[in-house]
């Protein structure tokens, strides 16, 4: 099998790892500039081509951005789940996995997240969850707002679980499984059902009842999967394709 052209050479990968280690050691934050190229060449003892390969890789991973022009260069940014979503999408595409795969993954993951939320979620996240529910209720006639709040609700639950892995996984999965993009429609009765489910999950989390929160989320995702399978079976069986939306 030929080498992946998007994956840096071994030396460039090692240099990329050292750059990230140095970012952590220096305590760099978002917006900080990294040392100029000449200093990095000296520190890492590599050629310009290898260093630039390392920096391009880190830019693709969302760790830095490369600003052009005088005073430019590598600047630290906050990584998000977009790179993870792309990697997962490509892995799933080359495994001929259907969209059902994502729905089943959510069915397994999100009840655990809700359980953790009932144990750990902060008051600020609880407030944000309530705001999402109220915004959805006030805009049930508007599918665009409904979809936005649906995603926001699940994002808050994922990150509110106190487990960073869950947060990034759900961000990535929701990025792949965007109902509006893959052809799943939400008539008003389904929007009302989703809103009611979100409220039940919220109340269980607010009551600090882990078992009830997990059960409510499991039922919510299960109902979504049943609805999609019944009304849009061809969508659920369609292969995941990168850039399909």
TrEMBL record:
Domain HTH gntR-type: 9-79
Classification lineage: Bacteria, Bacillati, Actinomycetota, Actinomycetes, Propionibacteriales
InterPro entries in alphabetical order: GntR_C, TF_FadR/GntR_C, Tscrpt_reg_HTH_GntR, WH-like_DNA-bd_sf, WH_DNA-bd_sf
SMART domains: FCD, HTH_GNTR
Organism: Nocardioides daphniae
Protein name in the entry: GntR family transcriptional regulator
Keyword tags: DNA-binding, Transcription, Transcription regulation
Pfam families linked: FCD, GntR
SUPFAM superfamilies: GntR ligand-binding domain-like, Winged helix' DNA-binding domain
Keyword Transcription regulation (UniProt): yes
